[in-house]
Amino acid sequence: MSIRALVRLCAGLLAVGLAAPLPAAAQFPDRPVKLIATQGAGSSTDLHARLIAIGLAPRLGQPVVVENVAGVAGTLGVTKAVHSPADGYTLVLGNNGNIGIAPFTMRDLPYDPNKDLVPVAHLTDNWQVLVAGPRLGPITLQQFIALAKANPGKFNYGSPGEGSHAHLAMELLQSMAGIKLVHVPYKTTGQITTDRAGGTLDVAFDNYVAVKGLAEQGKLRVLAVTSAGPLASVPNVPPVAQAVPGYEATGWFGVFAPAGTPPAVVQRLNSEINAVLADPKVVQTMQVAGFEAKPSQPAEFAQFVRAAQKKWGDTVKSIGLEAK
């Protein structure tokens, strides 16, 4: 099922099943709220934004309008948000790429996520799977690591480009496993899937939902998942950490507001978003798309973001990737 179809399905369910609107806090909100999605329609970011908007509107008693501001690896939308009034009426849906990684890979990033934004709500986590093409045959992760160690530079891997989550996740794996692969950057993830299934690309990290069908057809082989432990949503697939102890690479989504947004407004938004995330229909829709709802308090989410930034900042430095 496509992301757009999931949004439509969940919208219909929420329309008849979500809890009744709660009384609005004094003076907020008294007009529509805008939620900036930093990728285009049909993307994972768009899915999150629209599900949250659909569920949040009746709880706030005001429309929540999604505005897609795509471009420059998702940083254009964040930039627009940080230049908006800090009143709670403009929010942005950030992720590990434009909040956790971009500060270390983009030299002229027009915002500092730790100074220009305030974390509002952690939405979801997601994990990728390491997928091998048919050229490697019926191989396990342990066997692939052994082959790569014995043949440095013989095998390649694809990613959506330097500094992407998939690129850094693979660089982290190489460092921890003691292997050396050749990086092949792509402009689209679709081409990665095509080349991997065609046998010209050996391995790549990808979303499980995107490769599940090809894996079931035997055209691709899922070797491991990047979570710290096994996942029920990715059955019969071991974590990378089983072969490389301590390895973990989490992607995530969350809502942020411009710095200076009143704490009471942030807390109100956090409470209502957490209520949306607790709705079973939202949880199920996210799970089908490969995401796990992670409601938390603003302070807890802020700590999570800082930890992610340290992890990927250290990874960028360790591989000598220069900011561009």
Please state the overall shape, judged from the principal axes of the Cα atoms.
globular
State which percent range the strand residues make up: 15-25%
**pLDDT below 50 for ≥5 consecutive residues: which ranges?**
15-25
Radius of gyration: 20 Å
* Helix count, DSSP H or I runs of 4 or more residues: 12
Main beta sheet: 10 strands, mixed
Query: By helix and strand content, what is the structural category?
Result: alpha/beta
CATH class of the largest domain: Alpha Beta
- The count of domains is 2
The average pLDDT value, as a whole number, equals 91
- How many strands? 10
CATH superfamily name of the largest domain?
Bordetella uptake gene, domain 1
The CA-CA distance between the termini, in Å, is 37 Å
- How much helicity do the residues have? 40-55%
Q: What would you say this structure looks like, in words?
A:
It is a single chain. The chain is built from 12 helices and 10 strands. It is α/β, with parallel strands linked by helices and 324 residues long. The chain has 2 domains: 193 residues, D-Maltodextrin-Binding Protein, domain 2; 116 residues, D-Maltodextrin-Binding Protein, domain 2 (3-Layer(aba) Sandwich). Strands 1, 2, 3, 4, 5, 6, 7, 8, 9 and 10 form a 10-stranded mixed beta sheet that branches. β5, α7 and β6 form a beta-alpha-beta unit. α1 runs parallel beside α2 and α4 packs across α12. It is globular.
